[in-house]
Amino acid sequence: MTYNAPNLIASNPQSFIIKIWVEDSLDDVGGKTWRGHITHVPSGERRYFDRLDEVLSFITPHLEALGVVIDKRRRLLNWLKRWRSGRSSGRRNE
How many CB atoms sit inside 10 A of residue 18's CB? Predict the structure, then answer.
């Protein structure tokens, strides 16, 4: 990541709350699955997740609105990873 407007970022801080917990898995006897959600404090927007890359996907638009430039190659690789994961789990990600 590179910063195009450090003064804008400093004058408009963003806060996020991330909560993570462990649940008993229905797939495996005695298995555990972790889950979580992230909340953008200023807007109250919340997203539930079960993969850490979803946290970055949630935060990225808020950072870009502040002028942070996200490496396009990295974003493409993250998108491909999510797409492949969605196909293998039977669900499609955006």
Answer: 13
